[in-house]
Amino acid sequence: MKCPACRSENFYLKDPEDEYEIHPFRIKDGVVCFDPDTDILNAPAVSSDTETFCNQCAWHGKFNALDNQ
Known about the structure:
By secondary structure, the protein is an all-beta fold. It has strands spanning 10-15, 18-28, 31-34, 51-54, 60-62.
């Protein structure tokens, strides 16, 4: 899955309880893979309507808007 604007495969989520806390991730084979230093137990859940931000450009939108190509 890639950013629909710049084709990047690197994204992040903002923590719903702390807007300054971010959780970087990539998508490998359709699975969200958080960065190794992310505590998976404390990472926010990702669903189709999760607000997602591109790590390379200004795009942000719902997780289900990512390009599957």
